[in-house]
Amino acid sequence: MLLTTLLTAAAVGFSAGVTPGPLQAVFLSYAVKGGWKKALPAAFAPLVSDAPVILIVLILLRSLPEVFLQILQIGGALFLLYLAWDSFKAFRQYHEVEEMGKTNGLQTLLKATLVNLLAPGPWLFWSLINGPNFLKAWSVSHGWGIAYLAVFYGTFVVVNILLIGLFSTVRRMGEKVRRGMLLASAVVLAGFAVYQLLAGLHLI
Q1: Whole-number Cα distances in Å, 175 to 33, 44, 94, 171
Q2: What number is the average pLDDT over the span 25-37?
Q3: What pLDDT score was predicted for residue 150?
């Protein structure tokens, strides 16, 4: 029974890591602009952003009006547009890409955390999938609940680190490829922003 719970946590963590979303687009943008060392702190963003998400989802979210999620979606869309513009500027002014050294690890972590916190994905994910799984494990014993969280986030963070390592290899593929990936990250971020904005406005 415990093994099944842990395998479920690992499977859910892996799926959360590999599913394309705003956070993965941020990994791509930072890895291409600054390399894996600059992007690495972003891999730990879910450990910071998910704490209030878990607390609110497990205690309050079901009693809050639907407009709460709508506001999150719109705010997150605007922030994603800002990040898309940042990547596009790096594409246009390619020689300034190497100046990302001015951005420290804490800034990278905070930006990625804000993206994750304002995206509807974590809220829906914890409401529909991880919340019920965690509560089921917690109901057996607190140790099981803690083990579920440890395996889930351990898997999630490792997958994030692997993705950053994969994206950072683009830095060694030549200037044209790097510029193309910067443009791609800007387009992907903008695409997620438009989708999230339309969803927040109930247009799709």
Answers
A1: 11, 28, 9, 8
A2: 79
A3: 95
